[in-house]
Amino acid sequence: MVVLLQIHESAENYLETILILKKRLGQVRSIDIANELSFSKPSVSVAMKNLRTNGLIEVDKDGFITLLEEGQKIAEKIYERHTLLSDWLTALGVDPAIAAEDACRMEHVISTETFEALKLHAEKNSLTQ
């Protein structure tokens, strides 16, 4: 029997943030996430425990966070959606700050089919690299 993990928007945001911070800083700790998202340390701690319990991250003895395979997949999917949607909205003339905010909301609710169609359209019109 296959059990599909239902992941909530907040978990997707945390995973995406870990991916972004890893690219930017090389290593990620809970305090980095709290600072990036302007969340309290206790809130981030609870979220990290939930992500760890669900097998999406691991935290080493020094507090460094690593995305596990499934967490990495989710983070990359959300990051790709965010980047494409933000670039697409900006190309349409939306202010970049507003485009980034809107992309952050849209990336969680857009269907795979619609996203793939937008991605194909963007590639044909050179909105992606």
State which percent range the strand residues make up: under 5%
CATH superfamily of the largest domain: Winged helix-like DNA-binding domain superfamily/Winged helix DNA-binding domain
Please provide the count of β strands.
Answer: 2
Mean pLDDT: 90
The total domain count is 2
Q: What is the CA-based Rg, rounded?
A: 16 Å
Give the H and E element order: HHHEEHHH
Q: How many helices? A: 6
Euclidean distance between termini CA atoms: 39 Å
**Proportion in helices:** 55-70%
Task: Give a written overview of the molecule.
There is one protein chain. This protein is mainly alpha-helical and 129 residues long. It has two domains: 9-73, Winged helix-like DNA-binding domain superfamily/Winged helix DNA-binding domain (Arc Repressor Mutant, subunit A, Orthogonal Bundle), CATH 1.10.10; 76-124, Diphtheria Toxin Repressor, domain 2. It contains six helices and two strands, in the order αααββααα. The chain has a two-stranded antiparallel sheet with strand order 1-2. The longest helix has 23 residues, at 69-91.
In short:
This protein is mainly α.
Based on the model shown, name its key terms.
Diphtheria Toxin Repressor, domain 2; 2 domains; two-stranded antiparallel sheet; 129 residues; mainly alpha; single chain; disordered N terminus; Arc Repressor Mutant, subunit A; 68% helix; 2 strands
Topology:
Elements: H1 9-25, H2 30-37, H3 41-53, E1 57-59, E2 65-67, H4 69-91, H5 96-109, H6 112-124
Helix pairs in contact: 1-2, 1-4, 2-3, 4-5, 4-6
